[in-house]
Fold this protein.
Amino acid sequence: MNRLSSSKSPYLLQHAANPVDWYPWGEEAFAAARRDDRPIFLSVGYSTCHWCHVMAHESFESEEIAALLNERFVPVKVDREERPDVDRVYMTFVQATTGQGGWPMSVFLTPDLKPFYGGTYFPPESRYGRPGFREVLRELARLWLEDRARVLASAESVHEQLVRATASGPGPRIPPATVLVQAVEELASQFDHRDGGFGRAPKFPRPSELLFLLREHARTGDTRALAMVTATLRAMSDGGIRDHVGGGFHRYSVDGQWRVPHFEKMLYDQAQIVRVLLEAAQASGDLSLLEVAEDTLAYVARDLSDPAGGFYSAEDADSVPPDAPEGAHPAEGAFYLWEADETDRLLGADAAVAKACFGVRPEGNAPHDPQGEFSGRNILYRAASDEEVARLHGLERDEVAAACERARRILFEARASRPRPGLDDKVISAWNGLAMAAFARASRVVAALRPDAAPRAAAYLDAARRAAAFLREHLWDEERGRLLRRYRAGEAGIDGYAEDYACLVFGLLELFQAGGDPGDLRFALRLQRRQDDLFWDEAGGWFSTTNGDPSMLLRLKEEYDGAEPAASSVGLLNLIALTQLMPGAGGDAIGGSPAVTDGAGNLPARIERTLQAFEPRLSLASRALPMMLAALSAYHADRQEIVVVGEARDPRTRELIRAVESRYRPFAIILRLEPGQAAALARDLPHLAGMGMRGGVPAAYICRNFTCDIPVTDPAAGDLKSRSRT
């Protein structure tokens, strides 16, 4: 066992038995590099990464390669999910020097941590057009001994270029609404009208792009924007990227039809996709999207939930194939693939219908698999609609739907006996904030669109509340006033990054709207203060890290909404929501403490400064920051606060809430309050003080800039049916 054996990271523990003498990131490794005058080999990945597993089996389990690493380098392993700060710095280098990025990431550093060579996956010998890892190690070791001056000069030059490239300053203006229109046009020009999504294979779900399009649909009435969203979501929901047996979505599709996925399942994907499905169901009225959202939440609740309330990070892409000999290596997708005769045996009389529904073929249905790993097996996807299968088999649509649902249950039970993919059971603050937001929003949307599903809606709210309680108990350091990044196996650690604060505030604001607990709002405000204290940039936006870690060569401000939204994008959405909730949001008291202020002034001033800071990026490369575009859309929209006051058990209250929540209102803060709750919240939100029922009848208050219209008591009133537009 090497130095990783005492780690709490599932990824580092996967490498604890390697013959490579790994160090974790830290001063011990840096001191060894200085003492022994050796370069550092930095390997960055995460526990559910397929190609990380491949490189581990091929290279890090090899005695020969381990000997090279141990004798000529100081090998360092980093879990990118625990240390996104380290990952971002060196990924910036790899992308700048190679034009691409990904994991595993392999970077060679001088003892003072400056990178001089890097890439992603290296095979042990040259293939796939990539140099062999043995060759790379031998050549770099030779250069370090024989041409040190050139290596050091290159590292210094690259570092200076990265410092210049990542410097930022405020832009000249707040981006106008024309930037939003241009971004919609850019997405429309790259939209795949046949298969949904944008561009060609591989296709990644980028929920923030879809959220932006939904907001532009609401702001401007652009029906194209809504059509692109719903077409993409339906294609994803029908494709193999979705687990049709157990629920949830895989990481991405290697093909353009969403058919053949990389099979890992990430919490942050589930949370963000659920959010888009819920909003799209509201905007379009398509309840099939709501069904997929609930199916995904059921997967998270069943397979990614800690009994104490938090949410786990991910499930692996790889698992040991069924009936494999003892000691067999895990294979990608083994848990999810089916042979045709296996489905025949399990499904009996329903087999023909189910195979038509899910595209099962005798020869297998994965022709796009480049390595042939899936040959002869089937990835389930919706190959035909219930109506099409009914016509083909001379059945009623309801008969087909029932047969396919029976097939799902039978296959789920059969699959449960297979070796499961590895579970990454660490709890990450940022991802839990996103998941909290999804469950809290689901509690509202499901109750509104499916009145018969009140128990499920209540369960979603309870899940969000339990997650909030878990995070506050285990990941909030009250004594230091600091949020921690990771909890696992009874231990919390690693000071949180800006994204952890921003995403948890995001989740708490959603939870406050769903449940009305002032404690959630107060905790959100406290976290917002700390986020600003630790990460705020006077030029606008938030740095990813504090300035207190000398091992960080660069203090970066994330300018890309990728698989996870950037801290500044989520933070901007949070500030906009807080200004809607709080009159005088910059300086008035909240919970007895002054709200966040600094050199940037009050919250509206911070919003403007952040938009100015990102204006060049939004104007020149808008698709890089779709979540910030969603915030810009809110900035330019007609924003509302809607407060419904009435007893929750009163059917009239439920009808008012349903009238509000069944409409798509992305620019509204919506509160549902018991009659006495408004007065109790007045200490924090004074403008609520006068809000109550009208003549004993539940009432809805529609407010803009803390000025409210006459209360509405009729759910059919026009004010409740209208949508907010500029």
The two ends are 62 Å apart (CA to CA).
